[in-house]
Amino acid sequence: MRLKEFYLELSALLNYFQSLALFFARVVVAYGFYKPASMKWADIDATALWFEQLGIPFAYFSTLLTASIEIIGVVLLFLGLFTRFISIPLIVILFVAIGTVHIHNGFSIADNGFEIPLYYILFLTIFASIGAGKFSIDHILFGKDK
Amino acid sequence: MLTTVYTLSKNILQNFQSIALLLARLIVAYGFLEPALMKWKDIGAVAEWFGSMGIPLPTLNAYMAATTEITGVVLLTIGLFIRLISIPLMFVMVVAITTVHLAHGFAAGDNGFEIPLYYMIFLFIFASHGAGKFSLDYFLFEKK
Lengths: 146, 144
Known about the structure:
The complex is a heterodimer of chains A (146) and B (144).
Chain A: H1 2-15, H2 18-42, H3 44-53, H4 59-79, H5 83-102, H6 115-130, H7 137-142
Chain B: H1 2-13, H2 17-41, H3 43-52, H4 58-78, H5 82-101, H6 114-129, H7 136-142
Helix pairs in contact in B: 2-4, 2-6, 3-4, 4-5, 5-6
């Protein structure tokens, strides 16, 4: 019984850090998408060619779409605006990335495996289901009905 | 209008909170399995390695880190005392980052602090949000 009381106390205390944890996660995932996004925008034609080699249909259109979602994702995740919405297409992009590039390399990052995109999928699933936390524009706009 | 759409999608997506936390828990547990087993296989070598990095009381700390990690694997998987175990695991990550990874920069490809940082953030989310419904914590402490 004492243990239960202690654990519930601890939980109540740690609950205060929810928004901070989500904020850190959002900033780090936004940072993580920044490099692939700017790489794609730096040379859209080369990326489209690469997408075509990977067998992705409508390579040019898919490239523009992916690059757009990624760069919008960077901004929205950072601001915490429409966090739940943007997380879903970002998850789709990561599944495509795993399926076309990483799956053949196994799990470990050392072999360019699917380890990191998997971590990103998990973070984004958390954002989609839990939201952006209080340090976000979502909270300012939609926080009232919580 | 926008608020209606947002609230509607929120109500749907909220149902996936516990699944999201469960998947994250399992993956983080899996991530700790390898370093934990490596440490237990040759704890003497780990103590020596810790000593060479300037970690004080290397043998004690090797046992502490290895114990925390293997306990973490089990507790994260079954979702027991998740908030409690996440804190020392975060501490292990901070030590790993400062002693090993920081000098290599960010990128995981260069053995940088990218992956331990992701683990730290996952653990921070677990500590602050708990394990979700698919956990022993939920049955023991939260279910009415």
